[in-house]
Amino acid sequence: MLPKNRPPTHPGEMLLKEFLEPQGVSQTQLARHLSWPFARLNEIVKGKRSVSADSALALGEALGTGPEFWLNLQRDWDLWRCLRHHRAVPPLRMDTLHKSQGARR
Question: What are 38-79's pLDDT values in tens digits?
Fold first, then answer.
């Protein structure tokens, strides 16, 4: 569920504040452990890059969280950002859809 009064936590912020800093692990150390370029990890931490399924698998294995944790954080972040600019779409009325398709046949 998306928070109502604040943006959801970006996965990069969660990674930095809840995993790296408390454990005294640097971004460089984690990037090396994951065999990632430093820029890849740093861009996630800074919120400039999304957590992909591949990244979520690696982070989940390295940090013992499972990939779903990282993908859910990313999903919530993406939805929150999109909702800020989303134009509502009215519900599709199936009875109207079927009638218009029948008229075209």
Answer: 999 999 999 999 999 999 999 999 999 999 999 999 999 999
Locate tokens 């909702």: which residue? 83
Q: Quick one: DSSP state of residue 35?
A: T
CATH number of the domain at 11-84, out of 3.40.1170.60, 2.40.30.110, 1.10.260.40, 1.10.357.10?
1.10.260.40
C-alpha to C-alpha distance for 44 and 85, rounded to whole angstroms: 23
Taking CA atoms, 64 is separated from 1, 22, 52, 57, 78, in Å, by 23, 15, 17, 10, 23
pTM of the model: 0.81
Rounded to an integer, the average pLDDT of 68-94 is 93
Take residue 89 and report the two structure tokens written for it. Answer: 């779409």
